[in-house]
Amino acid sequence: MNKWYIVLSSEEVKRNRITRARRFGIDIVFWRDSKNEVHAIDAKCPHRGANLGLGEIVNDCVQCPYHGFLYDGNGIAVLIPSLGKSAKINPNYMVRSFKVKEFMNSYSCGMVIKIPKKISGGLKVLMNPILFNH
Ligand code: FES
Description:
Blueprint: E1 4-9, E2 19-23, E3 26-32, E4 38-42, E5 56-58, E6 61-63, E7 70-71, E8 77-79, E9 97-104, E10 109-114, H1 117-120
Antiparallel strand pairs: 1-10, 2-3, 3-4, 4-9, 5-6, 6-7, 7-8, 9-10
The structure holds FE2/S2 (inorganic) cluster.
């Protein structure tokens, strides 16, 4: 692993709306922010395990449907409502995120994500790697 894999077509990811997909045995939440950038994070909230795919997009972040934590495109918790808006949040409080790139060629357009080696052990690769090696 540690290569880029095709995961979705571009039109499947809409601005300010969550798209859920299971890839490589991982439930992943995708969304397109107000600057048209696509983000991908693990769908399991690290707080109490709620499905972030059932949340919504607030201020370009994913809001957990259970206690309302907000996670940005890097998976970092930027708001914990019970602590208040001005609370300083431990930067280690985060959900796993994935690098995303969109591509376009003469056949199609879509997006790829990079699955880091450290989380890929034991995962069954369901799709063929494509030729992005960064
Ligand atoms: S389970 Fe997600 S914020 Fe509590």
